[in-house]
Each structure stands twice: as C-alpha cells, then as structure tokens.
C-alpha cells in the first residue's frame, strides 16, 4: 500500500513554476529518494507534503485520505535549512517541539531521555543550543524529528553537516526506523548516498518528474551493456578472442595488467559470454558489468530531454 | 487552541526568565520612585542655616526681608568696610550690601558660604518690590495696599453642560495629565513590545527553526501566539512596575516621615512650585484634586485604557510581525518601519494639540482612525467623550486589528520562508494574494 500519493500537483510562484504535474507513489515502509538538482522543486514538494504551503492544483493523499491537519502528528520533518532556538535549553526545546507535534509532555520526556542515552548526549539536556557545535545540534534535531514516531519521515539532505561517524549513525537509525515500519522520504541532490539506502526514487528536474521507480529496476533499464575486464597477457590475443559484437571503449596497461572497457553492440552480451570467449587466451583477473550510477542516469536522462543543459546548477528556488 | 497556548507559554516564559527582564523590572520602579522621592528628600536635606548681615545704605529695606527657618536676616548699621574686615570672625555666612538711591539701588553679596539660588531670588524680589512700592508712591501716589486692592484675581471655571441640562465642572489640567500619561504609556508599550515581536520573528527566521515549527502549527498560529505571549510579558512587567513602585514609595515615605515633619512646610511648597504644580494653596489643592477626580470617569478611563493599550498593541504588533517576516536581519527593517512609525509618532505629536482642543474635528477623526485612536482617544477620554464615539472607535479598532492581522498573516506565512531576497512593497503586495 502507498502511504503517500501525490496526484498531479502544480505549484507556481510569482516568477516561476516550482512544480509541474508531479505525481508520486510512496510505498509503505520504503526509503524513497527524492532526487534532483538544487532548485528542481524538491523543497516545494516537501513543503506541500508538510502542509506548509498548498498546491495550486492537484491533491495529496496520506494513507488514502486527503492530507489534512490531523496527519501532522504522523509526519516528521527535518528541513534542509535547520536550526533551533539558540538561547533555549536543549531538553526544554526538544520537549516544546514534541508537544507541538501533539505529544504528551511526560511521554515526550521519557522518550527523549531514551534517545539522549542512545546518542550518548544525556549531559546536554540543560545546555543551551548556542553552546553546541553544529554536528551536536544536528543530532538533537534528528531526535526531535523522529521522537513522535511518525509514520512518514521526511529528511531533506539529512547528512549535510555531519561527520562520517555521525553520518553512519544516522544512516543506521534511518534503516532501523524503516525496519520498524516507518516510511522515509529522503531528499537529496547527492546521488551517491541514495544508491546505498533507497528502495525507490523519483527524479525531479526543472519542476517536472523525469523518472521514478524501484532503484534496481531503474538501474536495469539503464544498463549501458558495457563491461570492464582486467587481465594479464597479450592484447592481440585478447582482441582475437573477442568476436565482432564488441566495441573497445578504452585500454590501459599498468605493470603487466591491462584494463579494458568494452561495450556490446547487441543485447546478448553478458559476463558469462565474455569469460567463455577469453578464458582460453588470457589470464583473467576480473570481469564485471559496468552498472550506471544514479548520477550517470540522471545526467543521461536530463540530457535526453534538454541536450544543451546537463549542468547541475538549477534556477533559484 | 492547545498549540497556540503552547506557543504563548514558550514566548512568555523564555522572556520572563531572561536576566534583562528581571533587571528592567527592578530598575524601572527604582527609577520612577527616585523621580518622585529625590526632590522631597533633597528639600528636607536643605537644613543649612544661614545668617545674612544686611547693610542697607538706602535705609529702604529695614525689616523688609522675611526670615525663614533656614535663613535669617540681621540688620547692622556699620560701615561696609568694617563689616568686611570682621566678616571671617563673625557669625554671618554672608553680607548683603545695598547701596544707591531709589531705582538706582544696587546690591552686592559677599559670602563665605555660597547662598542658594532661591535665597538670591528672594532677596532680589524683596528689593524689587521695595523699589516698586516707593516708585508707585512717589510717582503715582498709590500705596502698596491700594495696589493690592485693585489687583484682580480671575479664575475661569469651565463647566460642561450636556444635552439633558446637567452640568459638570472639569479641570483641564488634571484631565490633560491623566490623558497624556495614558497616551505616553500606550505609545511606549506599542513601540517597546512591537519591536520585541519583530525581533522574535527575525530570530526564528534567521535561526531557521521556523520551518520546523510551521510543519507542526499554522504560521498564523505561530504569529498570533508570539504576539499574545509578548503582550502578556508587557502586562506582567507593567503590573510588577506598579506594585514595586508602590512598595518602594511607601517604604521611602515611612523612612522620610520624620524628616518631612520637621522640614519647613515652605520648603515643600517651594519644591512643588518648582515642579510646576502651580500657585495653588496646598490645603485647598488636595480638595480640588479630589473634586476633579470625582468628576473624571475613572471606570471608563481604566477600562478604555486597558482596551486601547491591548488593542493598539495587537494592531501594531501584527504589523511588526509582518515586517520581521519580510526581512533577513534587523538592519533591513528600516524601510518597512516608516509606515508604522509615522502614524504612531504623528498621533503622539498631535496629542499635544488635541489636549488644547479635545472636542475638535481633528481630535474626533483621529480618535476614530484605528492607527491613531489608541493614543488620541486616550487623551480625549478624561475630558469626557460621547459613549457612541467611544464605542465606534473601539469597534473600528477591533476591525483594524482584524485587518492588520489578516494582512500580516499573509505576508508572514510567505515571508518566513523567503531567504536572501531583497523584498520591496510591490513584492509584499503580491504575497497578500498567494494561495495558502
């Protein structure tokens, strides 16, 4: 079942179109990557899901109901530009934000203490936010986002500002929350981080959705039918062994080992076929298919639509 | 609603717990009490006894100088040079030397202890009076007593006659003080706490917490919660000020009681004169004030003060919130502050004219217009305002408040999410019509 269904949403601002006919299905208990360059319309869409703004046209359904104020307590939002009241105590502030989400004060306190223990920050409770480092504040912020155990978590660039250790900590928490039943919408322009944890993605560029689906399926669709082979031996023998269905893209030789990238000219190509053809003539070190990264797919997709514009810089938001 | 009350609570508590709030709450009454107590205290301290040796060569001022508890004049018929020689061995603190004839009389004062300004002006007026009396006698043959007889004293009594034929006496002095005092407090309150609202909004915007909060509550709720929370802070502060000032003054009164009793009543009278309380006879003055206060509609005054105090603040508070939301930092607020401060300052300036003519058409219209009515109406009420005018003005203020809050709410919800953009009036106008 889909936890969230965005249906033909349009949003215009005075000078530009932020969202143009966007439809999305976010399946329950998935990690859904919302991708696109800066200014593509991600934040506009997220704000609509959070009911901060309303769409000009189109609807949003939360568990098959039209999104309304009562769903606020079931959504957790970590905005890209985040901050806390600088002069307010950490614990006090976290309690305040939890209560605004509709939590009972005592319940919130108990849960907060647990999270603070988990992140080993119990002794920050009475500190003021201005005394914390940026990374520390981010941890507090993450806790306030997930504290009320929302069914849907929306994280806008959650890893910005974290060091690698904390990034891993947060990643682990995200996966754990998913396993417990939460659905996570994960918005980013950093395509690499998506491949690791997302099940589904949607690509938005210039206010339009240009691609969506399961990550595996998308990657399959965008196979480039090219392979990388590393071997020791004679290059001429290698070339002879290959049949005509290949095109050599590049060759590099280093300390007796040659790395060759090839591309099949038809779809019958596979790793098995390659090994079969080469095994008699050269010493194979490795053979693997070159799978396209989300970044490659994105660039390819954007350039298909708009050949002269494949840069990642977008219009202003 | 529950979420609004959470916001109000936070806005209130974080401000009330601040050190600056505590300090201001304590310092305010101390300053106010000092303003009232110090002059009285000073007058009781003026106990230095001075004896002045009067050497009057003209012979016109013998026994003309009035002795007081702190000042004694002694006439000596000695040569001025002899008096000067023995000055430092004498009991006298200064020598008053009067010489010349008639109008040409001049006076010099030699002192070892600086005489007060009051003393000198007293001496001057005594000499002037003396000379005047002599001149009157010589030139016009009029005696002092004759002059006093023809010196007219006229007080114009202002009586309000209403439609039903009832008549009321009013003192415009006390009404002016009350009205203007109320207006000043409202003016200050709007400015002080309006700016706090603006700062609060800017703080939320620059610290970027606003987006988190408005994913839980509506922007309008956040704005309203902030305005109301800060209003409560202001009310708390004023209440504490009134209570603390009262306590400090009564403590000081007890402490000064004895001093005041021994103090020369004339000294107190003089202080009062100096403070501009007028030449009213002190015993009579109390009764007069009482009589006038009885006639001023105290109940109406208090209720309307509270109403305009809050109404005015809410009206302007919303506008201040809108400004805060439209800018990125306090430095950028200047251009938008103008349209808010102009009606306020204008009302404040005009209030001084309105006191002169509280029923004029300028006063009438400005006391209906919501942007100026909190100040102008406050000035008018002690002079008596028709009930329908008051009700209409209050009604318009409520409408005005709803209007500015609506406008501010629309600017606010767009503004708080707008960063790094120089906003102008045209832009603000567009924001009014954005869809939710």
How does this structure look, described?
The complex is a heterodimer of chains A (317) and B (436). In chain A, 32% of the residues lie in helices and 30% in strands. Chain A is of the alpha/beta class and 317 residues long. In chain A, the strands form three sheets. Chain A has a six-stranded mixed β-sheet with strand order 6-7-8-3-9-10, sandwiched between helices. In chain A, strand 9 and strand 10 form a beta hairpin. In chain A, helix 2 (90-100) crosses helix 3 (105-118) and helix 2 (90-100) runs parallel beside helix 4 (134-146). The longest helix of chain A has 16 residues, at 164-179. Chain B has 436 residues and is α/β, with parallel strands linked by helices. The longest helix of chain B is centred in the middle third of the chain and has 44 residues, at 219-262. Mean pLDDT of chain B is 81; it is low at 276-282. In chain B, the strands form two sheets. Chain B has a four-stranded mixed β-sheet with strand order 2-1-3-4. In chain B, strands 5-6 form a two-stranded antiparallel ribbon. Chain B is built from 16 helices and six strands. Chain B has two domains: 50-150, D-Maltodextrin-Binding Protein, domain 2; 172-431, no CATH class. Chain B is 66% helix and 7% strand. Chain B has helices at 2-16, 19-45, 80-85, 117-140, 144-150, 172-206, 210-213, 219-262, 265-274, 282-295, 298-326, 334-356, 361-366, 373-380, 387-415, 425-431, and strands at 50-56, 71-75, 94-99, 106-111, 159-161, 167-169. Chain B starts with a helix and ends in a 5-residue tail after the last helix. The A-B interface holds A 13-14, 47, 50-54, 56, 72, 75, 77, 79, 81-88, 96-97, 99-102, 141, 144 and B 3, 6-7, 10, 14, 203-204, 206-209, 211-217, 219, 417, 419, 430, 434-436.
């Amino acid at each position: 079942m889909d936890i969230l269904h965005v249906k033909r949403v349009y949003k215009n601002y005075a000078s530009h179109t932020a969202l143009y006919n966007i439809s999305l299905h976010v399946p329950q208990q998935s990690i859904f990557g919302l991708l696109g360059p800066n200014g593509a319309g991600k934040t506009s869409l997220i704000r609509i899901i959070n009911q901060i703004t309303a769409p000009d046209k189109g609807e949003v359904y939360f568990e098959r109901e039209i999104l309304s104020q009562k769903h606020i307590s079931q959504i957790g939002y970590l905005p890209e530009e985040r901050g806390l009241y600088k002069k307010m105590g950490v614990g006090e502030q976290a309690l305040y934000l939890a209560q605004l989400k509709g939590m009972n004060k005592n319940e919130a306190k108990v849960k907060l203490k647990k999270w603070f223990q988990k992140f080993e920050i119990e002794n920050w409770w009475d500190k003021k936010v201005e005394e914390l480092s940026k990374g520390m504040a981010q941890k507090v912020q993450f806790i306030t986002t997930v504290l009320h155990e929302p069914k849907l978590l929306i994280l806008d660039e959650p890893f910005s500002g974290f060091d690698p250790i904390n990034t891993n900590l947060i990643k682990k928490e995200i996966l754990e929350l998913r396993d417990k039943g939460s659905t996570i919408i994960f918005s980013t322009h950093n395509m690499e981080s998506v491949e690791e944890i997302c099940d589904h993605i949607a690509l938005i560029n210039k206010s339009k959705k240009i691609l969506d689906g399961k990550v595996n399926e998308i990657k399959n669709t965008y196979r480039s039918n090219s392979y990388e082979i590393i071997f020791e031996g004679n290059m001429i023998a290698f070339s002879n062994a290959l049949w005509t269905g290949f095109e050599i893209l590049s060759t590099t030789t280093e300390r007796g080992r040659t790395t060759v990238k090839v591309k099949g000219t038809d779809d019958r190509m596979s790793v098995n076929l390659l090994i079969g053809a080469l095994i008699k003539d050269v010493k194979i070190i490795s053979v693997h298919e070159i799978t396209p990264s989300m970044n490659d797919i994105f660039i390819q997709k954007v350039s298909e639509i708009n050949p002269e514009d494949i840069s990642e810089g977008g219009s202003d938001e | 609603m529950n979420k609004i009350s959470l916001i109000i609570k936070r806005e209130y508590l974080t401000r009330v717990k601040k050190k600056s709030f505590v300090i201001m709450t304590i310092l305010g009454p101390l300053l106010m009490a000092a303003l009232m107590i110090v002059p009285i205290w000073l007058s009781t301290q003026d106990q230095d006894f001075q004896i002045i040796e009067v050497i009057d060569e003209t012979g016109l001022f013998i026994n003309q100088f009035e002795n007081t508890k702190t000042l004694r004049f002694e006439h000596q018929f000695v040569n001025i040079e002899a008096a000067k020689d023995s000055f430092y061995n004498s009991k006298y603190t200064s020598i008053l030397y009067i010489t010349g004839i008639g109008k040409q009389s001049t006076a010099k004062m030699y002192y070892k202890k600086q005489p007060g300004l009051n003393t000198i002006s007293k001496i001057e007026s005594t000499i002037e009076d003396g000379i005047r009396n002599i001149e009157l006698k010589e030139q016009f043959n009029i005696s002092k007593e004759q002059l006093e007889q023809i010196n007219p004293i006229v007080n114009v009594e202002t009586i309000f006659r209403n439609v039903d034929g009832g008549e009321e006496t009013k003192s415009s002095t006390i009404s002016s003080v009350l009205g203007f005092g109320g207006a000043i407090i409202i003016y200050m309150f709007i400015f002080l706490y309006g700016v706090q609202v603006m700062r609060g909004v800017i703080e939320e915007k620059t610290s970027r917490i606003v987006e988190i909060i408005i994913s839980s509550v509506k922007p309008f709720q956040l704005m309203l919660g902030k305005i109301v929370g800060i209003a409560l802070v202001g009310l708390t502060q004023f209440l504490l000020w009134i209570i603390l000032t009262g306590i400090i003054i009564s403590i000081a009164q007890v402490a000064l009681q004895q001093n005041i009793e021994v103090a020369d009543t004339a000294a107190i009278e003089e202080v009062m004169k100096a403070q501009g309380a007028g030449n009213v006879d002190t015993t009579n003055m109390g009764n007069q004030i009482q009589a006038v206060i009885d006639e001023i509609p105290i109940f109406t005054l208090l209720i309307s003060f509270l109403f305009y105090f809050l109404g005015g603040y809410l009206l302007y508070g919303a506008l201040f919130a809108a400004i805060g939301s439209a800018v990125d930092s306090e430095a950028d607020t200047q251009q938008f502050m103008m349209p808010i401060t102009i009606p306020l300052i204008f009302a404040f300036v005009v209030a001084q004219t309105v006191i002169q003519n509280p029923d004029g058409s300028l006063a009438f219209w400005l006391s209906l217009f919501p942007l100026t009515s909190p100040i102008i109406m406050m000035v008018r009420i002690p002079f008596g305002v028709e009930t329908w005018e008051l009700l209409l003005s209050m009604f318009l203020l409520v409408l005005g408040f709803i209007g500015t809050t609506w406008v501010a709410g629309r600017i606010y919800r767009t503004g708080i999410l707008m960063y790094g953009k120089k906003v102008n009036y045209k832009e603000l106008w567009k924001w009014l019509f954005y869809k939710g």
